[in-house]
Amino acid sequence: xxxxxxxxxxxxxxxxxxxxxxxxxxxxxxxxxxxxxxxxxxxxxxxxxxxxxxxxxxxxxxxxxxxxxxxxxxxxxxxxxxxxxxxxxxxxxxxxxxxxxxxxxxxxxxxxxxxxxxxxxxxxxxxxxxxxxxxxxxxxxxxxxxxxxxxxxxxxxxxxxxxxxxxxxxxxxxxxxxxxxxxxxxxxxxxxxxxxxxxxxxxxxxxxxxxxxxxxxxxxxxxxxxxxxxxxxxxxxxxxxxxxxxxxxxxxxxxxxxxxxxxxxxxxxxxxxxxxxxxxxxxxxxxxxxxxxxxxxxxxxxxxxxxxxxxxxxxxxxxxxxxxxxxxxxxxxxxxxxxxxxxxxxxxxxxxxxxxxxxxxxxxxxxxxxxxxxxxxxxxxxxxxxxxxxxxxxxxxxxxxxxxxxxxxxxxxxxxxxxxxxxxxxxxxxxxxxxxxxxxxxxxxxxxxxxxxxxxxxxxxxxxxxxxxxxxxxxxxxxxxxxxxxxxxxxxxxxxxxxxxx
Length: 502
Fold this sequence. Notes:
- It comes from Allomesorhizobium camelthorni.
- This is Sulfatase-like hydrolase/transferase.
- Residues 4-339 form the Sulfatase N-terminal domain.
- Keywords: Hydrolase, Metal-binding.
- InterPro entries: Alkaline_phosphatase_core_sf (IPR017850), Sulfatase_N (IPR000917).
- It contains 14 helices and 19 strands.
- The chain is of the alpha/beta class.
- The protein has 2 domains: 2-356, Alkaline Phosphatase, subunit A (3-Layer(aba) Sandwich); 365-499, no CATH class.
- Strands 5-4-6-1-8-11-2-12 form an 8-stranded mixed β-sheet, sandwiched between helices. Strands 3-13-14-15-19 form a 5-stranded mixed β-sheet.
- A hairpin with a 3-residue loop joins β14 (373-376) and β15.
- It starts with a strand and ends with a helix.
């Protein structure tokens, strides 16, 4: 068996043609849907970037116990399990969060990896004295900074070295992926993961992709929206959205390059292909940009998934309505190669669904650490917030005390205690670290970042846009019981129930 896993970042399901998207032509995703099963009700687990990847690698949810952080010593990682079974794995990525404190143990689970530099705030190019006066005129004030180590500064410097289409990191990712296929397609027992940060912000694409979405904007570069409520003028919003559409068009083109290679070398007969993303991105819907700050709306949590298995040709072109989520990826990759899923994994292999649709789970639990606990049964979504997110009892359970960009502070660690092993830590005790307002994560992707904290119930059948919260004590009671059962199955700590007043 051979397998290719393509992982985009912030790829909105609803803009893709197989899911009814019309604003952006995505003919290659339409081609993909003809060759693979399209999953209709696929949901996230833990958010955002690295928590989502921890779920994907380990096959279990992490957001009830931990915010953004490295893989833990007790975590099961599907590429590592594949390696122990004799399956070679290779990662090609421009996702620079793998190479920060909070992601530094993910890429080393693969047999080899290739890191393409230059995305967003990647500390890539060294320019001690950039030409700030020229650059200040080029960029909108909301995405300009010359402060040391600031992500906007780093991005501005990086973009001075990314001019030609061939220099764009996502383009280089797919070139490197095709090089792996050229070198290894005749071999057996390998997994290739092609992972690009696109279409994550900033929405930067080669000019030929931007031409299709030209707006009337005639001001400095504006392709990086804030995380928060929309307060921009309409023409500014249109420019931001247009630049997102351009990066989606680029992503579709790159997807087409891979599909062309599959066609030219008939990889469809012996190579699996799985394509998905980590989460979506609000482009003004619900009066918000981005993620992290608001309720977990469908645009963020309901994501695309395509699965092709050469041993199940009947799965080509079908659509599946089973409720699935990101924790299903690890057991699926293991199943492709005949490797048993680890006992701690809670996901289910998706491969049986290629033969026939069915039901693998009653519901899907998802969320950000410290935010609402959310659940869907496919018909309803229920989002239950702590009564007061800023004062809830909350702990991080970890043996790898690192935030996104830095280790836990001595002040945080001074309050840590050693907790008994959790059911999934394989007998290892863990640090139990209280979350305080002085924690580096608190106002970034933690409780202090929330701009909405109202518990809500939505009926997706009658209100797919989630515009009108549903008032139904009976349905809320049913969803609360489902949430409780899934939290228990996920070994939620005792305070998790108390903090949402359950």
